[in-house]
């Protein structure tokens, strides 16, 4: 899995020059891997001139041991590349990356759900 909501073990500080997660946790059921479930359908709402999109993904730890998640991110890939598009779109664009102030230890057999609420306020437009 290389797009959508991703998780990792990296704790390097955020930089505006980043284009990927610091240390992504691979998908799978082996040691140090988490089973990435499909992204949930995006839920869109519009209320009081604020548009909100909610994205969510569940991660299952079937690795046999605890895994500590220290970073989460949102990666978008277009699958296209041409002279009219930003060159990284074919490789992916890191839309957001957060280093967690309190890392989350996910025990073997447990789940982690990561949800993003992205909103835009259009109240200035009449």
What would you call the shape? globular
What is the overall pLDDT average?
86
Instruction: Please trace the helix and strand order, writing H or E for each element.
Output: EEEEEEE
Helix and strand composition category: mainly beta
Low-pLDDT parts are 85-89
What value does the Rg take, in angstroms? 16 Å
Determine the N-to-C terminus distance: 41 Å
Strand content: over 45%
What about the largest sheet? 4 strands, antiparallel
Number of continuous helical runs = 0
Report helical residue fraction. Answer: under 10%
Number of strands: 7
How does this structure look, described?
With 126 residues, this protein is mainly β. It is built from no helices and seven strands. Strands 2, 3, 4 and 7 form a four-stranded antiparallel β-sheet that branches. Strands 1-5-6 form a three-stranded antiparallel β-sheet, with no helix packed on it. It is globular. Mean pLDDT is 86; it is low at 85-89.
Record keyword descriptors for this entry:
mainly beta; four-stranded antiparallel sheet; three-stranded antiparallel sheet; 126 residues
Q: What layout of secondary structure does this protein have?
A:
Elements: E1 4-8, E2 35-36, E3 43-47, E4 50-60, E5 67-76, E6 93-106, E7 111-121
Antiparallel strand pairs: 1-5, 2-4, 3-4, 4-7, 5-6
Short description:
The chain has strands at residues 4-8, 35-36, 43-47, 50-60, 67-76, 93-106, 111-121. It is mainly β and 126 residues long.
